[in-house]
Every structure is written in C-alpha cells, then in structure tokens.
Amino acid sequence: MNHKCPWCESENNFSFLKLKDYFLSQEDFEIYECKDCKLLFTVPCPTPSEIGKYYKSEEYLSHNEEKKGLVPTIYNFVKKINIKNKFKIATDGISSDISLLDIGCGVGDFLLHAKNNSCKITGIEPSEDAREIAEKKLDTQILSPEELQNIPDESFDIITMWHVLEHVANLKEEIYHLQRLLKKNGRLILALPNYKSYDAEYYKDKWAAYDVPRHINHFSEESIRNIFKETNVQLIDIKPLKWDSYYISMLSEKYCKHNLSFVKGVVRGWKSNIKANKTGQYSSLVYIFEKSNDINA
User: Fold this and answer.
1) What is the C-alpha to C-alpha distance for residues 205 and 125, in angstroms, rounded to an integer?
2) What are the chain's domains?
3) Which pLDDT does position 67 carry in this prediction?
4) Percent of the chain having pLDDT more than 70?
5) Three-state SS sequence of the chain
6) What would the mean pLDDT of 250-270 be, rounded to a whole number?
C-alpha cells in the first residue's frame, strides 16, 4: 500500500524500514521513502489528539532536568557544551541586536544562553510542562505552536529549530511560516538526524534517532535540498553536531539490549564520526539557510 508523502503529496513511495517504538510504546511502525522528493516519513502518523501520549515518559530527557543516572548526567553535561557550539553556529558573522526565535525551545536552555548574550529572544514550545519551566528560567512568556501564525512578518534575524522539524506534522505550513518570519538576509538553522550516517546504517531499525512515532519526518541532505529548492531561503552551509553520535549510539545499544551499552555506544559513536570525517555523513547535521527575496516561495 502506498501512502501520500507529507511534503510533495506523491504516492510514488515504498516501505523503507519496519521498526518499533523501542523508546516507549513498543508499537509497530513503518518508514516510507518518497521516490520523488526523497523524504522519509512515518506510517501510521499519529493524529494531533494521539501524539501526546508518545511523549509521556519520565525518560524523555529533552524535558527532564532532574533525572539521575550516568546517561542523563552525561546528556546534561554535553548539552551545555552543545549549547555554546549551537549559539556560535547560529550567530556566526551576525552583528549585535539579534532577534532570535527558537521553535521547540524545550525548557529554555538555548534561549537562556542567547539571552545572556544580549539577544532579544522568543520561544515556542508545544509541551505545557516545558513552557512553564522555560518561563520561570527566562522570566518571559513562551508561546504555544498555535501562536506562530500571529507573529508579524519579518520579525527575526535568526530562527532555530534544534531537532524539531522531524516532529512537525504539517511541513508545508511550518516552512511557510519560517520564510515569512525571517527578515531579509535572516538566517534559518535546522539541526536534524541524518539517516545516511554510519550509526544509522549500523543499527538499522534500532537506530534511536528514528524515534518513531515522535519523529514523523526523516531527512537527508538530498531531501532537504529538494524541499527547500523553491523557497526563499537558500542553503549556504552544513555543519556537524559530533556529540550527537555518542548519545544516539548509546540509546541504540540500549534498544539492542546489549551489555555495556554505554561503552559500546561511545565506541560506535566515535567510529561514526571517524567515518563521517571522510563522507560528511554525520549522525546529526545542521543546515544553515539565508533568506533571499529574489526567490519566490
């Protein structure tokens, strides 16, 4: 059975991979590949009323700052290093007085770093619990995704989405707003898992960054270029997030039920980065776009 691609709406696709939600529900899913735009997408895709239950877990580290144990401790340590690196990537070469929107801001750690570096910040976050934590941390209101459409055109110098676009059900609407909200010559930053990385190929259906059904979309450089080729933002650079391969590999080892998952994950993550030094296929990639008014959306 073919399914309609969430981006180009083509039914010219095939089953790419069968897998489970190893993280939480253990339910079965499939990932399909669109032959036209090359986007991978999760089938079945949970409805808006269903998706929330797939995030209900004390193990969901993106929103859990109090979790104890070796992996959460390492996660939070690396997160601090990553935040500085991400901010440098996002703001490199941009002058002061930066207005920055972080979509999917979680508990606000990246925005706090941006605020401490004199940025005018705005955050959007679907989780009510995470919004509450972020608002206390930042002393500012965090918007829900529904409020995105109410923000005026050309409001931001920088828009960041750190591992967020893979969660978005309506890609067309989201990308329309991204274009609309950026100022001319503004910068869009998208960090995404890369299923063409060595660790993805090694772990196959148990690669943690597939994370179905929370991840609805699965991207490669080819699909990103296809999706954005007719927009008014142009891809100007791609950079790696090298720490991600270690964390993803550790989780993948856990899903494989291997002993010494931490040690084996570190080794596999290191090997993935070594291979990616030659191929460019890192476990996570940051796509850097710049808005140009010369291209019609």
Assistant:
1) 29
2) 13-291 (3.40.50.150)
3) 64
4) 93
5) CCCCCCCCCCCCEEEEEEEECCCCCCCEEEEEEECCCCCEEEECCCCHHHHHHHHCCCCCHHHCCCCCCHHHHHHHHHHHHHHHHHHHHHHCCCCCCCEEEEECCCCCHHHHHHHHCCCEEEEECCCHHHHHHHHHHHCCCCECHHHHHHCCCCCEEEEEEECCHHHCCCHHHHHHHHHHHEEEEEEEEEEEECCCCHHHHHHHHHCHHHCCCCCCEECCHHHHHHHHCCCCEEEEEEEECCCHHHHHHHHHHHHCCCCCHHHHHHHHHHHHHHHHHHHCCCCEEEEEEEECCCCCC
6) 95
Q: How many residues make up the chain in this entry?
A: 297
